[in-house]
Amino acid sequence: MNVPSEPKGSILTPAGWVSGRVRIKNRRVARVDGELLRAGAALEKPYIVPGFIDLHVHGGLGGDCMSGEGGVRKALQYHAAHGTVAMTPTTVTAPIAQIESALADIVAVQARPRSGEAGVLGVHLEGPFINPGRLGAQPPYPHPGDASLALAWAERYPIVVATVAPEIAGGLDVVRVFAEQGCRVQVGHTLASFDQVSTAFACGCTGFTHLFNAMTGAHHRNPGAAAWALARGDHAEIICDLNHVHADIILAARRSIPKLYAVTDAAAAAGMPDGAYSLGGRKVFKRGLKVTLEDNETLAGSAINLADAVRNLVSIGISLTEAVAMASTRPAEYLGRTDLGRIAPGARASMVQLGAKLRVEGVWIDGEGVDVAA
């Protein structure tokens, strides 16, 4: 579909919805021309919203973020075509040499961005510092906490998000190292108790990885990590495929956690036909929008993109404004990025046009149009 060089429609700005046009100069938003709509006013299509930002994504279109530069680029292309303008390619637990190879590949891709690809904001390191009792679909290569290794990685690679089980041996030391290096450290793949999570946050943790999945829960007499998030958390990522977390639990989390944000946890299977694929070298199976291990029960990432997540959130009663915030503004703010997640003067001109049934009709990354998926 042909889209204008400057988006026009109902535009979601920090001040509210504006009926008008986005003016672009030097790949940035120069200004938004138009009329600010009163609260509750009917919006006319198309909707122009900030581009989506995925902070937990393993692949897409057959490309796996552990399988070299080509795999990473396939994932970037797939998600860009569905409205994701920036993302953090995410590793899985693996032998140390394999993780370092994947980190180097992601850095290489980040250094040489290409047209039509989502931007790389850095790496989400998911493991290897996780609990062997909560691997989920992660390959079986957990590693005890190693502060020296964590520091070496943080100094060498742009790790912006790290998943750590704080209760493992050396786990708190890893949390401290990553936090001191400016990384957002998240509790995940964990058997931590409520009190252990409190200690982890005192040491520098800031959020939770795929809330409710692969973590201790919210039992009323034995609260765990999920209960801590609901009671005290400000930030948490949640997979919005409606398979990993029931719709009403997403609504409960949204009422409790003020800056809850959406992720896909998408695997290489996203955007592909049903069949067998790889998740960091582990065989997984796609059936519809569900990805599992061979047992057909253990979830192994998802097959959605963030546009799917936005539609899912709206379908369960969340407003379009908030659904977009969960897929764009909040993840940008979590990373401290004021240049993304908003349509305002000075921000990067990275936006999405949504039409009927909230389908993606146009994508701009730094002011450049991207071919959208059919």
What can you tell me about this protein's structure?
This protein has helices at residues 69-80, 96-111, 147-156, 171-180, 194-202, 225-232, 247-256, 306-315, 320-334, and strands at 8-13, 16-25, 28-36, 47-50, 52-57, 59-60, 63-64, 84-89, 119-120, 123-126, 159-164, 184-187, 205-208, 235-239, 259-263, 275-279, 282-287, 290-292, 299-302, 351-354, 360-365, 368-370. It has 374 residues and is α/β, with parallel strands linked by helices. The chain has two domains: 1-49 and 342-374, Roll (Urease, subunit C, domain 1); 52-340, TIM Barrel. The protein has a seven-stranded mixed beta sheet, with helices on one face. A four-stranded parallel beta sheet has the order 10-11-12-13. The protein has a four-stranded antiparallel beta sheet with strand order 16-17-18-19, with no helix packed on it. Helix 8 (306-315) crosses helix 9. The longest helix has 16 residues, at 96-111.
Protein topology:
Layout: E1 8-13, E2 16-25, E3 28-36, E4 47-50, E5 52-57, E6 59-60, E7 63-64, H1 69-80, E8 84-89, H2 96-111, E9 119-120, E10 123-126, H3 147-156, E11 159-164, H4 171-180, E12 184-187, H5 194-202, E13 205-208, H6 225-232, E14 235-239, H7 247-256, E15 259-263, E16 275-279, E17 282-287, E18 290-292, E19 299-302, H8 306-315, H9 320-334, E20 351-354, E21 360-365, E22 368-370
Parallel strand pairs: 1-4, 5-8, 8-9, 10-11, 11-12, 12-13, 14-15
Antiparallel strand pairs: 1-2, 2-3, 4-20, 6-7, 16-17, 17-18, 18-19, 20-21, 21-22
